[in-house]
Amino acid sequence: MYNMKPTLLILAAGMGSRYGGDKQVDGFGPHNETILEYSIFDAIQAGFGKVVFIVREEILDLAKSLFVEKLSGRVEVDFVVQSLNSYLPVEFCNPDRKKPYGTAHALLCAKDAVNEPFAVINADDFYGREAFLALGRFLSQSASPDLHCMVGYAIQNVLSSYGSVSRGVCDYGSDGNLRGMIERTAISRLDSGAIVHEADGEYVEIPEGTAVSMNCWGFHPSVFAETQRLWHEFLASKGMELKSEFYIPTVVNTLIEEQKAAVKILEGGKTWFGVTYAEDRPIVTSALRELHESGIYPEKLF
């Protein structure tokens, strides 16, 4: 029997190569709050009962020092380490590999820490309170082994002014269910105003209003077994490549294609901002300050 208070799983093991540092634990709020603290605050308000941080070994102690005492008595807290060897058969261990295996591998690393319906988010994205309210309702009432969800965001609201971004561009039907998505890794707005993906000789225009994934998911814990199955398939085909990545959208697309699960696109993607580049920092800092000044958030979150 599941504890119907959902869990929040925070992906905080990324390298931050384009930002130039560990943005997951960098302070952006008026009292040096990290972006993920706003997600935790909103999730608690939306009825989540547990937070699981997925981190690299190098920042585990720092993450614990930042969050354990601060969240004590407010929400249950756990930490999971995503290493290059996590869930990796010995025959695929590659000493030359430096890059993490990606978001679906991070998800798999939390397999033994999560037993209830759960949300998955990035540590460095601000998703807005509406997103967590929508996730909390769905995960408490509707999640089942063959029904998951995601919060969709309009493409024009999730770009950076300082370079290209990677987004999962969604295809969906009139029933509000996801049909599939394509991971576009170099999306930007041209001077003409057009939003385009340009990479490896490919040029694709993306209409405004198109829903994209910002890695804001809701899953039944049945997804772990499927992720582990697909992880082994990924390793068999790409496991020895130094920069190959195993993405959550890959898992989701496969479950839809195999008709093993449906994924409902939830309304709730009203507000987003995030940090991809160092130049994004003052924009995020200013936006958070305005949210405090307008009373959306208290002077101090915790």
From TrEMBL:
Where the record annotates domain Nucleotidyl transferase, the positions are 10-226
Q: Pfam families annotated for this entry? A: NTP_transferase
Classification via SUPFAM superfamilies: Nucleotide-diphospho-sugar transferases
| Name by which UniProt lists this protein | Nucleotidyl transferase domain-containing protein
